[in-house]
Amino acid sequence: MGRDKAAIDTNAPSAASAEPIVVPEENSDAAILPIAGALSRSRGVPTQMRRRTQSDSPAESVGQSEAGDLPQITSQTLRLALRVQSIKKRFRKVEAIRDVSFQLNVGERLALLGPNGAGKTTLIRCLAGRTKPDSGSIELLGNPLPPTGGRDQLGLVPQDIAIYGDLTTRENLVAFARFHGLRGSDLRRRVDWALEWTGLADRQGELVGGFSGGMKRRVNLACGVMHSPSVLLLDEPTVGVDPQSRQRIFEMLDQLRDSGTSILLTTHHLDEAEQRCDRIVIIDHGRVIADGTLDDLIQSTIGPSRHVRLRIDRPLEQPIMPWYVGPIHASLGEDTRVDECCLQTRVSDVAGQLPGLLQGVSSAGYSILNVEVHSPSLHDVFLHLTGQELRD
User: What is the spatial distance between Cα 4 and Cα 19, in angstroms, rounded to a whole number?
Assistant: First the structure.
């Protein structure tokens, strides 16, 4: 863009005369971000990076009309990292968020799921102070948040890579540490920690523009936590990376959670939410439609029965006769589907019902070529709640 890149010196004092870093056009989450003296001037600094000033009055909190209308602090409040109550956001005629309420417990990893257009990214932007909700309230560690600013204890890692491709790994980490107010020995210690945490200490002097997608994601994640936030927001942290990089990123997140960081992440990888998160919130059409552990969601939707799929040697031409499970008379249920040479049904007791089903199919003269038994999954719950129609 015609401007020389500023040198990054971890020992240099803050100087208002330092050259700004010009962010490449493809980095949509930042504009021109000066390295030195950035936090002394809010101009050019992303709102989630600004330090709270005297003008950031608590009376300006979303959904709060007077300074005296502060929430009552209780033992339950102290256990909450984040509380979202009745958030609404409209863009002209589109209701992006209709009425969303949920909470994130201290030390918890919460998955926020939903189809395309459900309102996930808009909600993350509201939490991060990048979009102002029309109504509702947000509390961070028991304190009401203003529409923008006041988010020193909040970290944000956006879906789009928001790092400088023409800076080295170390230079990126130093820059973002300075944005968050770190200086001197604190800055150097945090940068050294981040290099070890990401596994990129041996690549610290290389330009990140030449890194793989997974390596960029790790640098992106580190830049979002240089200020040691208590709560971390992650928007699709593993999009577009290979399985090895996904594994490494979640190992990094495990370390953050072990150190006490509460994590809220959005993802379209349902296996990540199922295996890696303590609790799940599903939103659709701007509303929360499910909230709980995986077991809670299964119990309240599809139930704990197992899905059984039999592949037989030829199309089924006659119904399977009822059979007995001990003294109990059993037969195929109403949710049984027959498709070509495949029979699918659900059983609540695999050990008790499956042998009778197999015997019934064999007695009808069919050879069983394959048997599959599937436990209920988050994938089943998600499709049950949101439907199978494509969302573009």
Answer: 8
Are 201 and 222 within 8 A, CB to CB?
no
CA-based nearest residue to 267, from 251, 244, 255, 249: 249
The pLDDT score that the predictor gives to residue 322 is 59
Yes or no: domain 305-375 corresponds to CATH 3.50.50.60: no
SS (H, E, C) 257-314: HHCCCEEEEECCCHHHHHHHCCEEEEEECCEEEEEECHHHHHHHCCCCCEEEEEEECC
Which residues contact residue 349 at a Cβ distance below 8 angstroms, ignoring those fewer than 6 apart? 325
Q: What is the total residue count of the chain?
A: 392
Where do the DSSP E strands lie in the chain?
20-22, 32-34, 80-91, 94-105, 109-113, 135-140, 143-144, 154-157, 231-235, 262-266, 279-284, 287-292, 306-312, 323-325, 328-330, 337-339, 342-347, 368-374
Q: What is the pTM of this model?
A: 0.74
What tens digit of pLDDT does each residue of 24-37 get?
333 334 333 433 33
Element housing 334 (H / E): none
Mapped onto helix, strand or coil, the DSSP state of residue 323 is strand
For residue 248, how many other CB atoms are within 10 A of its CB? 19
- Contact present, 147 and 295 (Cβ < 8 Å): no
Residues 1, 388: Cα–Cα separation, whole Å: 46
Tokens found for residue 159: 């879906």
